[in-house]
Task: structure prediction
Amino acid sequence: MKDFEMGFFLDKIPYVKSGKGEKKMVILLQTEELHHSIAIKSKAKMQVSIFSKYIPKDYTFFILGYDKDLPPGYSTIEMADDIGSIIKNHIGKASLAAISYGGMIAIPLAANYPEFIEKLILIVTAHSVSEQGVKRAKKMLNLAKHGKFYELFQMSNEIYKRKLVRVFMRKMTQRKKTKLMETMSPSSLFINAYSYWIEHNGENKKYLEKINAPTLIIGADKDQFFTKEIYEETAELIHNAHLKIFENETHMVPIEKMLSVRKEVSKFLGE
Result:
């Protein structure tokens, strides 16, 4: 297991640092991080184990979480400015990778801090969520507002394409229900974060033409949150973007097709 360092930037944003390479990578995590923070050592260890398989050895990578006390109405632009300040003052010029929800922050970040972003990787994320995705996100938000997080987690498990994986994840969630509830971040973090981006869905489109960093976009044509057309438009509006769409895969393609996704990421970073 790789060594790692934990801490907080700006006294509010948890981070995990690992690797010894000269190149740097900043990673913005998916919705799961809104529920279970990398400030928990076991979660940090798991994330380092996952991303060390994706990121070449000549990189040092920083996995960033989210402020557990995120106030209502705090915008993804303000969150991007927080991360921009961290990169500028504490990390230095770096490549930026974002998964799912993390892309809502990464897009304005890459547009507004071009001098600090070497390369940009957007994994199952784009400038806007589809109509189907918004409906799903609103249902998730409603469950959270009513304190039904176990049901929310099980709903997320249904996104997996493969039946065996869905069954396995349902059983794992059921078995670990007590621990999942005990280690959760404040529910306000998920509620405030999701409420903002649902209300402002589509606003990131205006930032795409301002992105100068070479960009890799990885998506899936059966993604429950983003359509193939939205992925294609995102790639078209970024000046130097390459789009890889996995056929007959869902929003969980980074997990269910991990080796193939890792190959695309390694190839892009090596270019």
User: Anything to note?
Assistant: Residues 160 and 252 are 6 Å apart (CA to CA). The beta strands are 4-9, 13-18, 23-28, 59-64, 94-99, 117-123, 215-220, 241-246. The chain has one domain: 4-131+202-270.
